[in-house]
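User: Predict the structure for this protein chain, please.
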Amino acid sequence: MVDKRRLSKNGVRGRSIYKPSVPAVEQASRILLCLGQSPSFKMRLTDLCRQVGIYKSKGHSILNTLKAYGFVEKDPQTKTYSLGPALIFLSRHVLDNLHYPELVTPFLDHLAKETNGTALFGLIYGEHLLVVGKREGNQNIGFTIRLGHRFHITLGAHGKAMVAFMPEAEREKILSKKRVYFHGLEISRLNMRRLRDELTKCRQLGFAQDVGEITPGVNFVSAPVFGVQEKVIGCVILIGTFAESLIEKYGAKTAELARRISYKLGADIKSFLRDGKGNHLECAA
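Assistant: Here is the predicted structure, written as structure tokens:
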């Protein structure tokens, strides 16, 4: 067995220098995450290495290795790099074996059919929301959002719904960032005073809304989903061309459904299992 302890100059064994991580693997992981989080699909070697914090020679070697296994692709004309097709296979395998889709599908199916809209379930993944569940209620009007699609965590109704129920310190940290998209992809449209009022209202009603602001003619309502220790782990989103007058009704339905999913995921929802009027709801096991 290899002794991982080191010897000091005087021959006395000192503290272990063993580290439970491999630098090259860590750097490769950071490169993949950087590519995945970049606003542009492709990145130059110089920009990629600068953001990750490694030398270009090191970055070039890592990218060549990732490219050999299909995790990264290189455009020979622009000399830029992007995520490769091998990641699709891996992500599909993960999504296919998650218990989330099986758990949430009956709930989403019920909401979609009852509202004639599109119901989504997403999980927080870094600074994004990853769609892992989807059901269509209207076969004539659909939205091309596939499983595995990522939204920015602050975008529109779902951003407001999740951030509103985060701990204050975490919420303020997100609100202090320069690039948030609660009121659309144009940063200049953000109204912080209005946003704070919307977050307060969301905490009172249990859901947030977006009336044609992100996509003209399309309305969104969203409610947070909690996991163990009542931590926000994702949300339910309802999308449709339904009338603005139905938002309060559909918002309440979405909030109730999100609470029931939270219960199934182990959250202690007794303290917040209420409808939009403050009345207690029956908790179905």
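Residues 28 and 62 are 6 Å apart (CA to CA).
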